[in-house]
Amino acid sequence: MSVQIGDNSAAERNKRPIFDALLPWLRDTRCVLEVGAGDATHARYARQRLPETVWQTSEAPGHHRRLVAALADRQERHLPAPLALDVRGRWPDGPFDAVYGANVAHIMDWVAVEALFAGAARTLAPAGLLCLYGPFLRAGVAPEPGNAAFDAALRARDPAMGLREIEALDTLAARGALTRVDDIAMPSDNRLLVWRKRDV
Ligand SMILES: C[S@@+](CC[C@H](N)C(=O)[O-])C[C@H]1O[C@@H](n2cnc3c(N)ncnc32)[C@H](O)[C@@H]1O
Predict the structure, then answer these.
(1) Mutation test residue for ligand 1: of 1, 5, 87, the one with most atoms within 8 Å of CB
(2) Percent of the chain with pLDDT over 90
(3) I need a labelling partner for 69 at 20 to 30 A (CA). Which of 34, 56, 112, 146 fits?
């Protein structure tokens, strides 16, 4: 599987609208795990928007060193040392109040996407949230032209990558007792999807 780091200017551009949409969901969280945190642009911003929340970043081992370097100047209780986490491997124990990932589901291969949902389901506290931002498809609905072109470009580069159907993600979520509770339209035909774990 090909693993790539996000474009920093895109993360800068989208951080405000993402956190505007996330805030009502994450306001009362104590600890969030971010997967595929890239260069920590969103993690740094989380400190401003969610100052009481511990934001645990993580990255696939091949990109972990870059994430560590990106946070080398920030040693705070609310921004702990980044974890090396391939979602297909062993997850931290948790529990976390939320798992967050931006632009990860179309980069990960399907096995990793399955592992992301299974890992989140295991690691989340009861009523915990899985929040994914990015471009998605909808079953039976023609994608927006920009998303169709992006999907084709990804698949041409690596057939394992590509935009994911929301309904297929809902199926993975249901295996782990997660139910989708929000689907927010974001700029540039992106979406913020939120699933909540059953409160048992
Ligand atoms: C397009 S980048 C997004 C980076 C950042 N979240 C952002 O929005 O700028 C996709 C990220 O997914 C991560 N990733 C891909 N496969 C992964 C896996 N199996 N486990 C954990 N992270 C993975 C990559 O390392 C990369 O940082």
Answers:
(1) 5
(2) 92
(3) 112
